[in-house]
Write a structure and sequence with these properties.
By secondary structure, the protein is an alpha+beta fold. The protein has a domain of 147 residues. It is built from seven helices and seven strands; from the N terminus they run H-E-E-E-E-E-E-E-H-H-H-H-H-H. It starts with 8 loop residues before the first helix and ends with a helix. This is TPGS2 polyglutamylase.
């Protein structure tokens, strides 16, 4: 009612469920937790409008509308029209991005009445606009998908994320930060495992029992001579016993 505009249906349903959202997560370095990820959706009370007040408290201080430059619209081609800080647009802050910029809910058509169509844009620290999504639901999915990593919104700008943030992306979201490489080399992230080699049946070789080595001929002859002498001696003894009995 204050700004004479209606919230988009998906954002209104979100605020009916919860008045804002904030989730942070940390990593441990040398057993010391360090804050890293941050996912924020401002509450209704913090859904402040941008461009309506002066940047300074001095009289006749410049406003964001004074920084409007229509030359930025030239040569955009098929790109969506950028928001304006003056009365042509209504801009509300959804996420302060820890000082790295602002994610904004933008009403781009306000005359003669405010259009219910909204878009989500990212305003960087140099006050340049970068389009993110057409709906809040799509932006919310992006927020969750990028895990709230530092400066993740800059992945949708022409100059990308900083080298420090890129290290975190390589650790937690490597495919997201290497989208150009993924499009150029389709097989770069494909598992090249050959199932025929992994699941190849292994035929067990039968275990052949070794036969004891054959004895040499000389030893066999001596063994035979010994057994024959034993049998002859046994025969002589038995004949002697029979003689003594008779």
């Amino acid at each position: 009612q204050k700004n004479s505009c209606m919230l988009p249906e998906d954002l209104k349903n979100f605020y009916l469920m919860t008045d804002g959202f904030q989730m942070t997560w940390s990593v441990k370095t040398d057993d010391t937790p360090m804050p890293l990820g941050s996912m924020v959706i401002n509450s209704v009370s913090k859904l402040c409008r941008l461009g309506g007040s002066s940047m300074y408290t001095l009289p006749n201080a410049p406003t964001l509308a004074d920084l409007e430059d229509d030359t930025d619209e030239e040569g955009n081609g098929d790109k969506p029209e950028k928001p304006h800080f003056d009365s042509r647009s209504l801009i509300f802050e959804l996420d302060p991005c820890n000082g790295n910029g602002k994610v904004c809910l933008v009403y781009k058509h306000t005359k003669p009445v405010v259009s219910p169509d909204t878009e989500i844009w990212f305003l960087d620290r140099a006050l340049y606009w970068h389009f993110l999504t057409k709906t809040f639901t799509a932006y919310y999915r992006l927020l969750i998908t990028h895990l709230g990593l530092p400066q993740w919104q800059y992945a949708f700008t022409s100059y990308g994320v900083s080298p420090q943030a890129k290290q975190w992306f390589n650790m937690y979201k490597p495919i997201t930060i290497n989208t150009a490489l993924l499009s150029e080399e389709a097989d770069s992230f494909v598992n090249k495992l050959d199932p025929n080699k992994v699941f190849k049946s292994k035929n067990k070789t039968p275990v052949i029992k070794k036969k004891p080595p054959s004895q040499p001929a000389g030893s066999q002859k001596s063994h035979m001579s010994m057994t024959s002498s034993k049998t002859s001696s046994l025969a002589g003894n038995s004949s002697r016993k029979r003689d003594s009995q008779i």
